[in-house]
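Q: Structure tokens for this one, please.
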Amino acid sequence: MAELEAKLGYSFGNPALLDLALTHRSLEAEDAAEMSNERLEFLGDAVLGLVIADELYSSGALDEGSMAKVRAAVVSEAALAGVARELDLGVHLRLGKGEQDSGGSDKASILADSLEAVIGAIYLDGGFDPARRFVVEFWEELVVDRAAAPGEQDYKTRLQEVVAKRGDVPEYAVDGFGPDHVREFTAEVIVAESTLGVGTGSSKKRAEQEAARKALVALGEADA
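A: Here is the predicted structure, written as tokens:
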């Protein structure tokens, strides 16, 4: 677990909590001696929501309605699964054989739930401060991006949800050009080794959102 702890940026005093956070209910169903991460998931969901709400409130930049939209976007299943994949969480999950054989280690729902359980485990092991540091580190860029345009559709999340049903994960290649004060970015979104969309924008995230929007159009998704 040392590799995962290094990616989390947190070392557990009680490693059993991390083991529990990584244990899916499918393993509990196959082995009565195991306990699933569902209770930790419940706790982690509350901690994550509180930290995100506090960050949004402290910024003082958004009204209540906009804060609610941003929070909903960044704690969605797709957003959580994206962070989990960034951490390679799937390779560490403890799944029942049936779930493992059916690709459970990369299912968005399982990844999202397990990541919330990990947040709950960090909270129980070290308290609120390390849990908050973890959330801020891995969600800050996403929160800033969504807060910049809380009313816009989150095309990246939609695209991730669409291609996940096919067993794929979108990847982005981003290039920047121009002087720093007027820098522009071009993003290319690739799915199954094929380019589905190219977008430009004044930030990496804006370019990625535009690329994702075009990819959704290419896939025939409505209202993209």
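A few notes: The beta strands are 171-177, 184-191, 194-201. The chain has two domains: 2-148, 155-218.
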